[in-house]
Design a protein that fits this description.
Elements (H helix, E strand, L loop, with lengths): L6 H8 L17 H31 L4 H27 L4 E2 L1 H12 L6 H13 L17 H13 L11 H4 L1 H4 L2 H8 L1 H20 L2 H28 L31 H6 L15 H11 L3 E2 L6 H7 L7
Antiparallel strand pairs: 1-2
Helix pairs in contact: 1-5, 2-11, 3-4, 3-5, 3-11, 4-9, 6-11, 10-11
């Protein structure tokens, strides 16, 4: 099915109509108290998982990782990672396919368990990114630092990767995600986000403690299934903001600096085909060219084949050819 204009795409395109330096629509001033809380939470989310990685390295040096810990790490990473890529990104942000209400709720919960924020706020932030991609107003572009050379490059990459968490965030979901605010089920998931996040963090140690019947087993599961898993998933997601707007190739014409980065394609579940995505934002498939691995698309395609997903958006061969660059390295 060919890509069609929908409400989500219209919201993102609306911001492009202003002439000259655009006003950032859908943003409000942030109070001192809000900024203080935001920075404290950002510090916790960047430092605590890193401490867990340090502890995991000590454990690996001493005895390696147990099958239980590895299973908890892998299982929760895949579940929550697909919650972001399939749920938050392709389903809710770009509406590239449709599923019934029970699956919508499940995808929203899985994405919230990734500890990257609540579903509606995540979607609002990402839609703003697309509306202003790599221009003033983009919350996490690596190209907006007013400094040249290696220092400017590193500052830009840091800002896109994690530094933007510490900058005032006044994104208005009423502007960027009114369609999601009209969905009572998603609003309930949004309000329950703190409890879902807590559940995501405490579930692995509970499982580990019950299986091993020991405090040591619970602690080990907490380090691997909670902290290390969150650290790995966060930095993969953040790499799409930083690396995939800086290092890679551009097979398609876009108005921004998005690139494809093949080394990240497996661990990002197909999200690193970022130039493809910015060229065709509403496409359910990001790995559009031969050999491009896209696990998230395989999940969506499987849901479609068993009758749990429909209205799946894909670009036509003509649309692909129209935006394809005449020469490309990939």
């Amino acid at each position: 099915m060919s890509v069609s204009t929908n409400e989500a795409e219209a919201i993102m395109q609306e911001a492009l109509v202003a002439e000259g330096p655009p006003a950032v629509k859908g943003a409000r001033p942030v109070t001192v108290a809000e900024l203080r809380l935001q920075r404290r939470m950002a510090l916790i989310l960047t430092v605590v998982p890193l401490l867990g990685v340090a502890a995991a390295m000590v454990m690996l040096w001493g005895r390696g990782i147990s099958p239980l810990d590895f299973g908890l790490f892998l299982g929760f990473w895949v579940l929550t990672g697909l919650g972001i890529t399939v749920g938050f990104h392709r389903l809710f942000t770009h509406r590239s396919f449709e599923v019934g209400r029970p699956l919508r709720v499940l995808w929203a919960v899985a994405g919230t368990m990734a500890v990257e924020g609540s579903v509606i706020h995540w979607v609002a932030t990402h839609r703003r990114h697309h509306a202003y991609a790599d221009t003033y107003g983009d919350p996490h572009s690596p190209h907006l630092v007013e400094e040249t050379g290696i220092r400017g490059t590193l500052r830009g990459l840091w800002h896109a990767h994690a530094g933007w968490f510490f900058i005032p965030d006044g994104i208005e979901p009423t502007h960027w995600a009114p369609d999601l605010l009209r969905d009572p089920a998603l609003v309930r998931v949004e309000r329950a986000a703190p409890w879902i996040i807590v559940g995501s963090i405490v579930a692995p140690p509970i499982i580990g403690g019950l299986v091993t019947m020991s405090v040591a087993g619970a602690l080990s599961a907490f380090i691997w299934g909670s902290l290390v898993r969150i650290f790995v998933l966060h930095h993969i997601t953040w790499s799409i903001n930083s690396i995939c707007h800086f290092f890679g190739d551009q097979p398609f014409e876009t108005r921004d600096e998005s690139v494809n980065n093949w080394p990240l394609s497996v661990v990002s579940f197909g999200e690193s085909w970022h130039n493809n995505h910015h060229a065709f934002p509403t496409s359910a498939r990001h790995g559009l060219l031969p050999g491009q691995i896209d696990l998230s698309w395989r999940v969506i395609r499987t849901l479609e084949q068993i009758g749990l997903a429909d209205n799946v958006h894909l670009p036509t061969p003509e649309q692909l050819a129209k935006k394809r660059r005449s020469s490309t390295s990939g």
